From TrEMBL:
CDD domains in alphabetical order: FN3, GH43_CtGH43-like
All residue ranges annotated as the SLH domain in the record: 1503-1566, 1567-1625, 1631-1685
Protein name as annotated: Fibronectin type III domain-containing protein
The species this protein was found in: Paenibacillus catalpae
Coiled coil: none
């Protein structure tokens, strides 16, 4: 690329030569040019090559000189363009044109990519800013106010050397240093340009090497008290010298002057002050040279100047207030007083204050004062002031005797005198203008007509016999506040504005008050400490003073009365000073009470520069600080600050260079007393939730080792050992969220957060979880505008979340607290507070609406009303849906029917409301529930849509839902959007190549758009039109179009044209649907054009074309389609119907056979799984309409399924051991259509033909079998399978046998082993041979369950403390799935199933040994046993979820013991315990029985767990207590169970699987169940076992409340799966006696009848209440019945 001549560089060089008389210069102006581009050839792609990361960049004309070419960004979005090499140290310069002044252009340096770089930018509103971008997040390094003119070229320069970054702007031909910064984030990279908000022009980009070096030594040859003279050796080649000065070594330098000689005198300095200097010389280079080494000089000491602005004013008859201005270099001040007209003065004050009150004075007397300043060098001249005391004082006892919301009653004492009048004055603020409101002789005055919650300030004075008194002290009062008025000035009870920002509000049960803690700003930033206010009603707040007092200097620790007392004896005072001295950042304080330590604990965001001695108020420290107090009002004693938890290994840390950051934060105390710190980390990109230690003084993740100091205080671990998911979690990593506020309602955790835009308001969102550690649901915006006058809800009503007050959590009364930051300007109390009620809707929905004035009784209507009635998700276009007049509501006493009224946008629904397709929100009002309004989203769908296009091509969830109802008529059934192609049979789509999509599939049909990529400029080369064309038959159509501007650009304007006819202007904001009916098509196509009428690009969200004359052909199949999904499942789908409440799906083994319901739900797809293979299945579907009536069934559709060879091979995991002396191997049985053979063997003992050569000793042979499907000859191989081959018999020999003969009974084969007692270990040891064990297995009877049981009994031996039974490993490894070995001892019995250990786990072991004995820790009267296993006498760990072991411990209950409360505890290695849910007392066996998937110590204990809220459910109290005692169910807190709360589908499934001890391996789960969900395993097991097939569309809907009939259906299926019930044996007769039997859905009838028949369900009185939502009490009773049966 050709370059412009750099004439200005040559001229500078010439200038140097003209004015430099040294003949041989040592400094050269020539700099090595690494890159130069002046854009004269109009090409961005070569010499140098520029790379566009974003934005539209072209070369165009200079707006100030049309003959010059410059680089331009033509659009208004963020534009980034880069070029060059990977430079380390360099100088970068370029010229930038400001244009209209709205852009943010600048130089990029050390660019890594578009998310990581340094940025020297011009901001019209701020000036010049240096920032850095790290992983997409911008952090300001330096900023300088600098006036920038519009339509002006400026030259910026950036010099980077190591960690030093200097920025210059050229001013009047000279470089002006604007900042000198140090930053180590980036060491090298490319250069570039960045811009945003409007187009920009750039020219003359130049990269050179660094400026000339400079080792010149500066010296001082003279100093005075106000000047320093500097000198240095002349630099040959230098034209002049720039001098820089600082009062801090190493930083803070500012330009002070230029000298053309090698000396400089710096004047007007302060005396006795150290100054630091650096020099740079000008030599004709691109910038000045590098700076010289630092030197320092100190001015001489001198006495200070006299204090300026002295004042004196009488307070009353005996006091005068004096004040004066601070004097530089003063060590202190003296005040001298004269009462004799100035003849003599006496010293009355010596100190450091700038004010003093003289007291004990004589009334009506003139006093004169001299005020001086002094230091070590002398005392200043005197400043003078004088004042005369009043003759008498203001009336005493001036007070507010009574206060209401509209009046203040003022009273005072009478003043003696003949004629006395009183004057009361009032102002709106303490410093406002006072006006007289009363003048009279009474000593009482009622100031009426006041405004509630407003502060008023009063003074009183008197005139006695013509002489005026002094004015009283200020009396501040606030009229009683009776309502909340968000965003207005909020006065405390003394009338002063509440100053407590970033609030944390705590209710203290001891004092029965609320306490509001917040940043105390006093009109400025950063905060001056933490203030606390108290209230009993959340509206009227009393100022309680400073909760946390900041420190002014280290001297405070010895001289300040409060600070010295609080921190007496502390050795870490430097750390305390570094964290909470005045000028440091203390933000978002929050307090919770610790019930154990009885301390109030405060956490706050502590920030400032990382260097403790640097006073820069930046955000480098990023730590969390903790303080404690014995009182809620303080004073809080600061402890220390910490970095917090770290991103887990292997996960993306979005700010890896600065780990453990903690900024915006909150505290949450859970129902069980556990404390959590929630904070923004990773440069505000990720929210962390960290568990606090029991004393709340740190996070648990740094205390895994339990370290303490010499005083027993906890000490952090030396290395980080936190366990993710146990100690902490991260929420939405990289999402850039801050300002977290957490609360809990109905067992759900809610968290509101904001975006990260500094002081500017942004979109706040909330998320929900069932566990505090997640998983957390996708974020949603809760803020809702209900009136056009409301503040912007997309900016949280101009607030940022700070706290949520749990006023009455049980009844859903919560208050959102937000800050209106006023751009960070606290002057004049400009930053205000917003308190708003949080409204709970359906499910976990919440809404925050704007109320300009509201009272606390509004909270009564905010709690959730659990409506259980089902509503259609889709309704017909143009018709008002048939909505019920009564709905069912689940309350604390059960389900009740209640009246409801319906509305749309505050009016009764009309056909017009449903005249446009798409989403519609319908409101139902419940008069009997405080007129609670619940919103229900429905979708309006036409019957005969031909095209439905989501612009941009995104298959959003709502697009898929709408399209699922149009499948009968839709032309684009599977294509969301496409480009128009003439070659298609029926072409349709968008025209041209100049449009782009925006959005994502996670959005909705309005948030996604297609837009013309015209650059948002007038006369764009891309034109004005965004167009679509559709092929249609001639006729009349209805066209519906969705419009929205996701960028809310109010200047976007466009017209709509249909086949060229202008239909008028389009509205983009707010989003809307435009309808055009009767659009005629005469030429076989419809053209839809959006034509911009301004400079902003046209766009569209979606298109729907409807043929109103189309009558869809009758489809007897209802769109039902069936296809094999696997060898055991069928995938089904059907067309959805508007107005439907749901669908029933039926299955049969033959087309004309009996059909059984397999699914009932709202989805249009379903996977029927767990089916026997090699069969054809037939299906029919029906529709449930809005009245609950089921339609006729569709015609049948079928699908055939068959197993694959691989599936059969995968099912073969064991081969039965051959009998002794057997010569042929018996292979596993495979289904018809399949064969099986031996593929390979690792021993000659078994050949590949299955021939056995009996070995001399027991031998394990590993075989691989091959399965072949005969229909297509496909094959698959098994895994390697171990087969135990017994030793061959030897005539006359007893080798390999103990002579044991099994005793066979009706239910088992028993081997009695007489073990041998080891007198040393007190262990009885027994053994059996493989032959004996195999013989017993062979002879054992097959039980009804298909199981064979071999029992090995070790009889009791006196003195034995444990028993060990040895078993051949080969036999255990080859056990069949229905074979078990039971080992019975005095201490307990253990039943060993097949598959306990894998082949790899057993390895080459010949024997395994089971150990059962009394545990070493057993000291109680109830047994404690230890169970373990060994392989060849070495411990082998057992932990297998797929092979549960049954254990019994003999026990006889003591008198008074309840069997329901006998519990098995698992005793961990650290001594802690947890209940084994399956443990129960078996009275017939006289033993405690439980299952376990691991071995350890187990104890029998009696546990009585109860809750304090069970009085209303006496029918369930015993069952709840029994299950809670054994850990099957938990309370919602340590003291409460919430028996009437609803249960989610996920929680019920987890409880059901736990109660029954279900296990299964599964490799898939429902789409809405994630691997991180706490219920993932339970739901996966249930799906695998066929207990649940979900609600359709491979969804489980885990967060939905579960109905009683779904609970009973799942329970019955689970009981059949575990063979606790043989089959579904109930009939209609079993439930016919219940009054609401007709409400039982067909799919649930058999299950409910079966449970009733078997006594597991009794119903509620005369009802089953199948449609009611299941309560926690009902679940407990159900689970108890299962447990007992």
């Amino acid at each position: 690329m050709r370059k412009k001549p750099i004439a200005w560089l040559l001229l500078l060089s010439l200038g140097v030569s003209l004015f430099n008389f040294t003949p041989i210069p040592k400094v050269s102006a020539a700099s090595e040019i690494d890159l130069e581009d002046s854009f004269t050839d109009g090409d961005l792609t070569t010499e140098p090559e520029w790379t566009v990361a974003s934005g539209t960049w072209t070369v165009g004309a200079d707006p100030a000189d049309a003959s010059n070419k410059v680089l331009s960004q033509t659009d208004a979005g963020e534009g980034i363009i880069t070029t060059g090499d990977n430079w380390t140290d360099s100088t970068v310069t370029m010229r930038i044109y400001t244009g209209a002044g709205g852009a943010y252009p600048g130089i990029l340096a050390r660019v890594q990519d578009y998310k990581n770089f340094y940025y020297f930018q011009m901001q019209s509103s701020t000036g010049l800013v240096l920032s850095k971008r790290i992983n997409g997040a911008d952090t300001q390094i330096k900023s300088v106010t600098y006036p920038l003119s519009k339509n002006t070229w400026y030259t910026l320069k950036l010099v980077l050397i190591g960690s030093s970054i200097k920025g210059y702007i050229v001013e009047n031909g000279m470089d002006k240093l604007v900042f000198d910064a140090v930053d180590t984030t980036y060491t090298n990279g490319k250069i570039g340009i960045r811009n945003k908000w409007q187009s920009v022009q750039v020219d003359d980009v130049l990269v050179t090497d660094v400026p000339a070096g400079n080792q010149t030594v500066i010296q001082s040859d003279a100093t005075t008290s106000s000047s320093v003279s500097l000198t240095w050796d002349a630099v040959e080649g230098a034209s002049s010298y720039n001098i820089y000065r600082s009062t801090t070594s190493g930083s803070g330098y500012a330009y002070v002057g230029n000298s053309t000689t090698n000396s400089y005198s710096d004047s007007s300095l302060s005396s006795d002050t150290a100054y630091y200097y650096k020099m740079a010389y000008l030599y004709g280079g691109l910038t000045e040279s590098q700076w010289s080494p630092e030197m320092n000089a100190k001015t001489e000491g001198a006495a200070p100047a006299a204090p300026a602005s002295p004042t004196a004013g009488a307070v009353n008859s005996s006091k005068i207030n004096l004040s004066w201005a601070a004097v530089a270099k003063a060590a202190g001040y003296k005040v001298y007083q004269s009462s004799n007209g100035g003849e003599t003065f006496d010293e009355i004050y010596d100190g450091t204050s700038l004010s003093f009150q003289a007291t004990g004075l004589t009334a009506n007397t003139e006093y004169k004062y001299h005020i001086s300043a002094y230091n070590a060098f002398g005392e200043s001249e005197m400043a003078s002031a004088q004042a005369t005391t009043y003759s008498f004082d203001a009336p005493a006892n001036f007070k507010a005797a009574a206060v209401t919301d509209s009046s203040v009653t003022l009273t005072w004492d009478a003043v003696p005198g003949t004629t006395v009048t009183y004057s009361v004055k009032r102002a709106a603020s303490a410093t406002g203008t006072f006006s007289e409101i009363y003048n009279g002789t009474d000593t009482t005055y009622i100031n009426a007509g006041l405004t509630q919650g407003t502060g008023y300030f009063y003074t009183i004075s008197a005139v006695v016999d013509g002489v005026a008194s002094s004015v009283s002290d200020l009396l501040g009062v606030s009229a009683v506040r009776t309502s909340f008025t968000p965003g207005t000035l909020w006065a405390d009870t003394t009338g002063n504005p509440i100053d407590a920002h970033g609030a944390g509000i705590m209710y203290d049960a001891k004092t029965q008050k609320y306490y509001w803690y917040g940043e105390y700003h006093k009109g400025g930033w950063p905060a001056a400490g933490v203030r606390v206010y108290s209230s009993t009603d959340l509206m009227n707040w009393k100022d309680e003073g400073m909760a946390l007092t900041l420190i002014h200097s280290m001297d405070d620790f010895t001289s300040d009365p409060l600070i010295s007392k609080l921190y007496e004896g502390r050795t870490d005072t430097v750390n305390i000073w570094a964290d909470i001295r005045k000028g440091r950042i203390v933000e978002r304080p929050k307090v919770i009470y610790n019930d154990e330590t009885k301390k109030y604990v405060m956490w706050a965001h502590i920030d400032g520069d990382k260097d403790p001695y640097n006073n820069n108020a930046n955000y480098g420290k990023a730590q969390a600080g903790v303080a404690t107090s014995d009182s809620p009002t303080g004073p809080f004693v600061y402890q220390r600050s910490y970095r917090m938890d770290l991103a887990p290994a292997g996960e993306t840390d979005y700010h890896p260079s600065d780990k453990g950051m903690a900024r915006d934060m909150n505290l949450f105390k859970d129902d069980d007393g556990t404390g959590y710190l929630i904070y923004s980390s990773e440069e505000n990109l990720t929210i962390y939730i960290s568990k606090l230690t029991p004393d709340y003084l740190d996070v648990t993740g740094w205390h895994k080792d339990g370290n303490v100091d010499e005083n027993g205080n906890a000490v952090r671990d030396t290395s980080y050992k936190a366990v993710y998911g146990v100690d902490y979690v991260r929420v939405f990593p990289g999402a850039q969220r801050e300002a977290p506020a957490m609360f809990k309602y109905n067992g759900h955790y809610y968290m509101i957060t904001s975006g990260a835009t500094g002081w500017a308001a942004n979109q706040n969102k909330y998320t929900v979880a069932d566990h505090i550690f997640g998983p957390w649901a996708p974020m949603q915006d809760p803020f809702v505008r209900t009136s056009a006058s409301d503040p912007d809800p997309a900016k949280a009503f101009n607030t940022q979340s700070t706290f949520v007050i749990p006023v009455d959590p049980e009844n859903g009364k919560f208050i959102y607290v937000g800050d209106m930051w006023n751009g960070g300007n606290f002057a004049g109390d400009g930053a205000k507070y917003v308190f708003l009620p949080i409204e709970f809707g359906m499910g976990t929905d919440i809404a925050i609406k704007w109320y300009a004035n509201w009272t606390p009784d509004l909270l009564d209507a905010m709690g959730q009303v659990n409506v259980t009635t089902k509503f259609p998700e889709a309704v017909k276009l143009g018709e008002v849906p048939d909505l019920p007049e009564q709905v069912d509501v689940l309350g604390k006493t059960g389900t009740q029917s209640t009246p409801v009224t319906w509305s749309v946008n505050s009016h009764a629904p009309t056909a017009a409301d449903f005249s446009k397709p798409g989403p519609i929100t319908v409101q139902m009002t419940l008069p009997e529930h405080h007129n609670k309004v619940q919103s229900i989203k429905m979708y309006v769908v036409p019957d005969n849509a031909l095209y439905f296009v989501n612009a941009g091509g995104y298959a959003t969830s709502d697009y898929k839902l709408l399209a699922s109802y149009m499948q009968d008529t839709l032309a684009n059934k599977t294509v969301v959007e496409q480009a128009y192609n003439d070659a298609d049979a029926t072409p349709w789509g968008y025209l041209g190549i100049d449009s782009l999509p925006s959005g994502s599939a996670s959005g909705d049909i309005f948030s996604t758009v297609r837009y013309l990529n015209g650059g948002n400029v007038a006369n764009s080369p891309k034109g004005t039109d965004l167009a679509y064309q559709f092929t249609l038959e001639n006729g009349s159509y209805d066209v519906y179009l969705g419009f929205n501007d996701p960028w809310t650009n109010t200047s976007r304007k466009a017209n709509l044209l249909l086949n060229g006819e202008n239909k008028g202007a389009i509205t983009f904001t707010p989003s809307n649907t435009m309808a055009y009916t009767g659009v005629n098509v005469t030429d076989g196509s419809l053209n839809i054009t959006i034509r911009n009428t301004a400079s902003q690009d046209p766009m569209i969200s979606w298109i729907m074309i409807v043929d109103p004359s189309l009558t869809p052909a009758a489809d007897p199949t209802m769109g039902l389609a069936a296809a094999a999904a696997s060898s055991t499942s069928v995938q089904l789908s059907w067309n959805k119907t508007t107005g439907a409440l749901g669908y029933n799906l039926y299955r049969s083994d033959s087309e004309d056979g009996s059909y059984t319901k397999v699914y009932s739900g709202t989805a249009g797809v379903y996977t029927d799984s767990g089916l026997p293979s090699e069969h054809t299945y037939y299906y029919k579907v029906s529709v449930i309409d809005g009245t609950g009536t089921e339609s006729a069934l569709s015609s049948a559709q079928s699908a055939a399924i068959a197993r694959t060879a691989q599936e059969v091979a995968d099912g073969i995991t064991a081969i039965a051991a051959p009998a002794k002396n057997a010569t042929a191997l018996k292979l596993p049985v495979v289904p018809a259509e399949f064969t099986v053979a031996v593929l390979s063997s690792d021993s000659e003992v078994i050949s590949t033909q299955g021939v056995i050569t009996p070995p001399a000793s027991d031998t394990i042979v590993h075989l691989v079998l091959r399965v072949t499907r005969t229909s297509d000859s496909t094959t698959a191989d098994t895994v390697s399978i171990a087969v135990a081959v017994p030793a061959k018999s030897s005539s006359g020999s007893s080798s390999g046998s103990n002579g044991l003969t099994p005793v066979v009974t009706s239910d088992l084969a028993r081997l009695t082993v007489n073990g041998v007692l080891d007198s040393t270990t007190k262990v009885v040891k027994g053994s059996v041979t493989a032959a004996e064990l195999n013989q017993a297995i062979l002879l054992a009877p097959v039980l009804r369950s298909g199981e064979k049981v071999v029992e090995i009994e070790l009889p009791q031996v006196a003195g034995a403390e444990a028993y060990e039974q040895q078993i051949p490993a080969a036999v255990l490894a080859s056990l069949g799935q229905e074979q078990v070995i039971r080992i019975k001892t005095k201490f307990g019995t253990v039943t060993l199933p097949a598959g306990m250990f894998s082949t790899a786990e057993l390895g080459s072991a010949q024997n395994v040994t089971l150990h059962i004995g009394a545990a070493d820790t057993s000291t109680a009267e109830k047994p404690v046993i230890e169970v373990s296993m060994l392989a060849d006498n070495k411990p082998i760990a057992f932990h297998n979820e797929d092979a549960p072991v049954v254990v019994t411990i003999p026990y006889t209950p003591q008198a008074g013991e309840s069997q329901d409360h006998l519990v098995i505890l698992y005793v961990k290695d650290d001594g802690t315990t947890e209940p084994v849910p399956s443990g129960r007392y078996d009275q017939a066996a006289g033993a405690m029985v439980f299952t376990t998937t691991h071995f350890s110590k187990f104890a029998v204990v009696e546990v009585h767990k109860t809750f304090n809220d069970l009085a209303s459910v006496t029918w369930a109290k015993a069952q709840i207590e029994a299950l809670a005692s054994r850990g099957i169910i938990n309370g919602t807190s340590a003291q409460t169970y919430s028996p009437n709360a609803a249960v989610t589908r996920a929680d019920f499934m987890k409880l059901l699987v736990s109660t029954l001890g279900l296990t299964a391996k599964f490799d898939s789960n429902f789409e809405d169940v994630q691997s991180t969900d706490y219920y993932y395993e339970a739901v996966g097991i249930a799906k695998k076992l066929g207990i649940t097939n979900g609600i359709g569309d491979n969804r489980f809907d885990p967060r939905a409340s579960i109905s009683r009939q779904d609970m009973m259906t799942l329970t019955a299926k689970a009981l059949v799966a575990v063979q606790k019930l043989a089959a579904m044996n109930g009939t209609a007769g079993d439930i016919s006696g219940y009054a609401d039997a007709d409400q039982v859905s067909a799919y649930a009838a058999d299950s409910i009848a079966t449970l009733v028949k078997n006594g597991i369900v009794q119903g509620s009185g005369s009802k089953l209440s199948p449609l009611a939502t299941t309560t926690r009490a009902e679940v407990a009773v159900m689970l108890y019945n299962i447990y007992k049966n």
